[in-house]
Amino acid sequence: MAFDRKGGRLGYGGGYYDRLRERLNLQESARGKRSLWIGLAYEIQLMDKVPTESHDLRLDGLITENGCIKFEE
């Protein structure tokens, strides 16, 4: 639903993408690899800050109709 300028995501609260990414990270780390986690959004969905909790995983980048944003760790 919304994204912030530090890679935070605001969804529907089910934790689906966080669980998916954790599972993929386990598989990739066994092979010595790491995928980039990129979000797609409209610029209107980009906010200064979205509420996040300690277990929420952040995006590596975001693509909007105005360009790409790379988030630093």
Question: Your description of this structure?
Answer:
With 73 residues, the protein is α/β, with parallel strands linked by helices. Helix content is 21%, strand content 25%. It has a three-stranded mixed β-sheet with strand order 2-1-4, with no helix packed on it. The protein starts with a strand and ends with a strand.
Quick tags:
single chain; 73 residues; alpha/beta; three-stranded mixed sheet; 1 helix; 21% helix; 25% strand; globular
Q: Helical proportion?
A: 10-25%
Distance between the termini: 22 Å
Average pLDDT rating = 85
Outline: globular
Unreliable segments (pLDDT under 50, ≥5 consecutive)?
A: none
Strand order of the largest sheet: 2-1-4
Q: How is the quaternary structure best described?
A: single chain
Order of helices and strands: EEHEEEE
Biggest sheet: strands, sense, closure?
3 strands, mixed
Count of helix runs: 1
* Structural Rg: 13 Å
Strand content: 15-25%
Strands, total number: 6
Structural class by helix and strand composition? alpha/beta
Helix and strand arrangement:
Layout: E1 2-4, E2 9-10, H1 16-30, E3 38-40, E4 46-47, E5 61-64, E6 67-70
Parallel strand pairs: 1-4, 3-5
Antiparallel strand pairs: 1-2, 5-6
Short structural description:
With 73 residues, the chain is an alpha/beta fold.
